[in-house]
Amino acid sequence: TIHGMAMIQGEQVQDSELSTQAVIYLGPSSMSLMVAEAVRDRIRLLDFLQQPVPMARDIFRFHRISRHTMDRCVQIIGDYLEILKEYGAGSKLSVRFMISNIISEADNVDVFVNRMHVAHGLRGRRIDDGKMTRLIYVKVQEALAQYPGFSKKKVLVVHTGPGNTRVLLFQKGRIVRYSCYRLGTHRTGEAVGEIEYGDDVAELSILREHMRGQVDQICLDYGGVKGLAGLIVIGQEMQQLRDRLAPTPEGKVACSSLAAEAERMSRTTLEQRMNVYGADFAGVDSLLPAVLMTEMIARSLNLDDVIIPASGYDEEFSSLIRAEQHPGDLEAEVLHFAGILADRYKADKGHREHVARLCMEMFDQLQDLHRLSEHDRLLLEVASILHEVGSFINQQNHQLHSQYIILNSEIFGLSRDDVETIALLARYHRHEVPANSDPMYGELELRDRMRVAKMAAILRVADALECGHAQRVNGVRAHIRGRMLELELQGVRETAVEDLALRLKGDLFADIFGYDVVLAPQR
Questions:
Q1: Span of 103-107, 278-282, 337-341 with lowest mean pLDDT
Q2: DSSP output for 52-105
Q3: Under a CB-based contact definition with an 8 Å cutoff, are residues 262 and 292 in contact?
Q4: Exposed, middle or buried: residue 488 (CB in 10 Å: 0-12, 13-18, 19+)?
Q5: What's the pLDDT tens digit per position in 99-130?
Q6: Of 15, 243, 295, 443, which is most buried, counting CB atoms within 10 Å of its CB?
């Protein structure tokens, strides 16, 4: 059965002020259709439809998407597109097809995405790690907006996702720590999904033991945080169950209420659980793990309660759209978090910030030459901040140590591909230049190899201009003259040191762009 949501009535507006958008979202246990109008500066939800799909069950239990599930997805999308014809009559309707990040764990993910495209012409946009953290960031900002008193305090936010749990520590509204754990509501539910429903002792004990290792790690990572004002929990299951957990007007739920609900749930059969909690066959296995996980994390941190914010379908739609738009304030958080990571490995702050500034000046001035994107600009800036973290291990060959540290670090707001790009930039900021014989670089598509090489070339030049770690160069003006890139250095008269460094590091720029890098007299 398709569950519908009635149209929300709003004020009268002119048609020219309306922009109708639709999102078809394939989640871990359902496929949803959300239709909304952008009315001036706000989103007005028109309709919400949902059908169950056992995507998480296929992926976490069998590691591949079954033929039956693929056929079901094709049918549901077809039904949704028929419905959307009514909304699109007489105007161009924007339709996005977005897919949960858990699909990346399916062995046949490419087959599935191609099947949807062949059937309906829709190219699924996977919510990768970067988009997922952007979505979480948007949802966290929406949650924190409900609690303005937390803006100047330390707040821990836990997102209980289908495959992973993400923990963010906010201090005065800024992210100061971020971790991701292989602990998910659906991942856990499917791992122990063969237990007989209603066997409360077996189900609860096995679930707790299954989750204990990851919960203990969360406690180890965050248990020492002093002055914690509260724990905010966001996630589909917890917000679905919120009203059953006797929350206070502020959304506080006692750990005792979580434990009691887990006990009640464990004594129900599959059919009872679906009826009582309004769950479908594809999502019922994730409910109990979500409640237990929340209780165990809170108690491990010696907390008596958690805060579960209210959330509606209109907020979900707005969050998905805003996450796709890559909110500008998130870029500031990415850079802030990169700085925290650099501090952890005692990277020279003055040097890294100066290299980043010189990189950005050259990137902006040479836009017509390199034609890289704004997202590439962000990755280059992050790489500038992190390029010397490897010195924490050993100064000799520190570019290789930097690559290793970055590859094994979480950088909030960036995807795994982004992190690997930044690691390559750090590796190539000195000594060797990119070569197809290098495993990580050689495995990239040609377009991505060129992106890395272009950014690395700019980073090498900026690092050469700051080779003495003395911040001598106040700024740089770049000019193309004939077959040369002339750099006019601001605030420096004697440039022998920088000139020598450029002879060693300007080679990649000359190879990639065809211009020799030279220093021009200051005008």
A1: 278-282
A2: E--HHHIIIIISS--HHHHHHHHHHHHHHHHHHHHHHTTSPPEEEEEE-GGGGG
A3: yes
A4: middle
A5: 998 999 999 999 999 999 999 999 888 887 77
A6: 295
Question: At residue 383, does pLDDT exceed 90?
Answer: yes
3 state DSSP class of 20: strand
Helix H, strand E, coil C: the string for 272-290 is HHHHHHCCCCCCHHHHHHH
Q: In sequence order, which ranges of 366-415 are alpha helices (DSSP H)? A: 367-370, 374-386, 398-407
Q: Is the pLDDT confidence value at 67 over 50?
A: yes
Residues with Cβ within 8 Å of residue 169, at least 6 apart in sequence: 154, 155, 156, 157, 175, 176, 177, 178, 222, 225
Pairwise CA distance, residues 102 & 26, whole Å: 10
CA–CA–CA angle 505, 508, 509 (5° rounding): 95
DSSP category for residue 522: P
Report the SS3 class of residue 375: helix
d(CA 220, CA 243): 31
Global pTM reads: 0.81
Q: Which residue type does 205 have?
A: S
- Tokens read off for 509: 């720029």
Amino acid at 384: S
Look up residue 271 and give its amino acid.
E
Region of poorest pLDDT, from 82-86, 335-339, 451-455: 82-86
Q: Give the tens place of pLDDT for each residue, 294-324.
A: 999 999 999 999 999 987 555 555 566 655 6
CA dihedral 35, 39, 42, 47 (to 10 degrees): -20
pLDDT, tens digit, for every residue of 25-47? 999 999 999 888 776 666 777 88
